[in-house]
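Can you make up a protein sequence with its backbone structure tokens?

===
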Amino acid sequence: MYISKFLLLSLVSMISVALISGHGYSIYPMARQTLCPKGNIWWPANGDGITDDACKAAFKHVYDKGNNAQFQFVQINEFSINIPNYAQGDSALQASVPSALCSAYATSSSNDKSGMSIAAPWTVTNIPTTLGATHVNFTYTFCATATHEPSYWEFYVSNPGFNPATTELKWSDLTKFQTFPNTANIPFSHPACTATKGYAFNLSLPTRFSNSVLLVRWQRIDPVGETFINCSDFKCVA
């Protein structure tokens, strides 16, 4: 019992550190890692108590490797990787994140969030549109637990026919449809946001009427080249 309490206290401490040092996540549409329920990730230790099928599969994907499977559920603010040569463009991004895109290639034993990249029946955000529309216009929002400027943003959408329930996302499955230069943060309030600042962008998203993925890259302009990647599962509904 003492060991269990010690581990629980350690995990609570880890959550606190993660939220302080983290940098943010997509609010609309919601980032994949934010939609997994937190209450059942602690016990049983193998994740059997998790009721959401995709989240349970994500947990077990990391747990079965012997790594900390809770980490990807609690450090929701920091799905990131450093790309010092980011100015080289797409080639640098894809070389630094060759797989596990929705985890920002966090696959090491000390920082394993790879479960968030597996093929699974992820919960989607329904985005209203009209039947036959080729694009849907809406405001994308991001909860910034730390703001970073200068920076720039890139938005990608999965190609028609891609199925996130059966296929893990690759760069070849994505189309970049919009970019934004350095953008100032704004005051922000949302029940799912732990901060008071955020970012908002007016998107013209190519419509997808089946389950699809919006991948967002937030790139800091600095020598370290810290890059944040969030995946949001969505479906356009008329």
Q: What stands out?
A: Helices lie at 2-21, 53-63, 71-74, 90-96. Residues 2-237 form a domain with the Coagulation Factor XIII; Chain A, domain 1 fold (CATH 2.70.50.50).
